Amino acid sequence: RVADSTKISDKDSLFYSADSIFFNVKNRKINLIGNSILKYNASTIKSDTLIINKQENHAYSKGNISLRDKSQNLIGDEIYYDIKSQSGIIENGAGKFEKGYYYGKQIRKTDKNIYDITNGIFTTCDALHPHFWIQSKQMRVYKGDKVVVRPLTFYVNHFPLFYFPYATFSIKRGRHSGILFPEPGYNNHEGKYIKNIAIYHCYKDYSDWTLTYDWMEKTGWEFHFNNNYIK
Question: What is the DSSP secondary-structure string of 111-122?
Fold first, then answer.
């Protein structure tokens, strides 16, 4: 056992700290207990308990878990992490990026910028209990690029509104072509509605167009087409 509040950096550029650290020399295992932190390159894991297997270069953690991978932040119940490849699995995880949030029974980091999600939910609603979301058995997040889902069911207040076998949504920054995220709601005149089911297309720096479909419970549906051109 090493003294409390210890910080150690080994020859593999692996940094770890905890309230208490226990070494099993025979099995090459390190147990971090209390306020555990593991850092390797751009990845940082924080948890209550963390076990490092130096022989297999694996790490396992549980209890108030957070994983920071460059600009990506994730939380979950348990993390299984491969130190060398910087890939891993998060059980009952959640993540956030600029335009939304995603949750999943299992989140797997399979590549440098790719996350696969099983039984996932994606939403741009920032409420504690989202008012609308997309639910899918298979979801893939390309960090800074797009979200791909199959199949897709769109829910508003736990009520399924429509289904697609496959869809993709852009999460890029700035102006770019793609499918816009719908906006559900309610008012006395239209009743329940879902608006802005739309395709947006931009042409270079000078022109763009948007084709939009709106559905209202009391007043029916509408199509809109808008085109902008700047000389």
Answer: ETTEEEEEEEEE
pTM (2 d.p.): 0.69
List the one residue out of 132, 152, 207 whose CA is nearest residue 177: 207
Give the separation between CA 177 and CA 156, rounded to whole angstroms: 25
Kindly write down the DSSP assignment for every residue of 126-174, as one continuous string. Answer: -SSS-SEEEEEEEEEEETTTEEEEESEEEEETTEEEEEES-EEEE--SS
CA pair distance 77, 89, nearest whole angstrom: 11
**pLDDT at res. 81:** 86
Tokens 């009952």 sit on residue: 92
Question: Is 68 within 8 Å of 44 (Cβ atoms)?
Answer: yes
